[in-house]
Design goal:
Number of domains of chain A: 1
Structural class of chain A: mainly alpha
Number of helices of chain A: 8
Radius of gyration of chain A: 19 Å
Order of helices and strands of chain A: HHHHEEHHHH
Shape of chain B: extended
Structural class of chain B: mainly alpha
Oligomer: heterodimer
Largest sheet of chain A: 2 strands, antiparallel
Shape of chain A: flat
Largest interface: A-B, 41 and 38 residues
């Protein structure tokens, strides 16, 4: 009973400190780490919790000024809206069925260009140094596929 | 010797409250603070690298209380 009470007390402190806002301020870092180091099922479990929180978050864990999720940049906004779709993709892949990553399928929903076999969300807040568009990096830029071919020769 | 003779000042490491209304943490959202979930290593990574010490300490303290509570419940 003592530990339950202490746990509730600490939880109340976390609530008052907007700990969830602190954590979700680094949503992109969490997603990147999850997709690179852990299994898709862990991302699904995290995304379900994340979707239930749609209020204010902080600028960062060190800067506690508030901002609303609506005020985020466009790639981040797309990234938040597409969480459900990513969950579906990962769940389908876990069941052993290959998901169709073709550009036609994805571009109907994403304004961000799609690169084959690379999840968009990893680069959702990155900006390409080649074409200056959001959503991918120079190495995966769709406007310069010849670069990779030249490297292999 | 370094710091010899100087008074040692300490303060408790607890998360500082913010000056605006915050949302109540639901039972589902509490899972973010559990240490036995599948995504727990990610939260640990976040706390170690991006969060201030007071917040990380408070969350680790919550881990300790919950883990102890579950250990006692299992042993009973």
């Amino acid at each position: 009973m003592h530990y339950i009470e202490k746990g509730v007390e600490v939880l109340s402190t976390l609530e008052n400190a907007n700990a969830l806002g602190c954590i979700f301020a680094h949503k992109h870092d969490i997603t990147t780490y999850l997709l690179e180091n852990l299994t898709p099922s862990s991302y699904i479990a995290y995304a379900k919790i994340c979707k239930s929180f749609t209020r204010h978050i902080m600028h960062s864990a060190l800067d506690v000024r508030m901002r609303h999720l609506q005020g985020m940049s466009a790639p981040f906004q797309n990234y938040l809206e597409d969480d459900q779709e990513l969950c579906d993709q990962l769940a389908q892949e876990e069941q052993g069925e290959p998901y169709d990553y073709s550009p036609l399928h994805s571009q109907s929903h994403h304004p961000i260009p799609v690169h084959h076999n690379i999840l968009l969300h990893v680069y959702a807040c990155k900006r390409c140094h080649h074409c200056h568009k959001w959503g991918h990096i120079r190495a995966t830029c769709p406007t310069r596929p010849y670069h990779r071919l030249r490297l292999h020769k | 010797m370094y710091s010899q003779g100087y008074p040692i000042k300490t303060c408790p490491l607890t998360a500082l409250g913010v000056d605006y209304a915050t949302e109540t943490i639901t039972a589902e959202q509490q899972a973010l603070f559990y240490s036995d979930t599948t995504f727990a290593p990610t939260i640990d990574h976040l706390l170690d690298n991006f969060c201030p010490f007071n917040l990380a300490t408070t969350i680790y303290q919550y881990h300790f209380y919950k883990d102890t509570q579950y250990a006692i419940q299992e042993s009973v």
